[in-house]
Amino acid sequence: MSIKADRWIKRMAQEHGMIEPFVDGQVRGGVVSYGLSSYGYDIRIADEFKIFTNVNSAIIDPKNFDPRSFVDVKADVCIIPPNSFVLCRTIEYFRIPRNVLCVCVGKSTYARCGLIANVTPFEPGWEGYVTIEISNTTPLPAKIYANEGIAQVLFFEGDELPDVAYDDRSGKYQGQTGVTLPRI
Question: What does the record give as the reaction this protein catalyses?
Answer without folding.
Answer: dCTP + H2O + H(+) = dUTP + NH4(+)
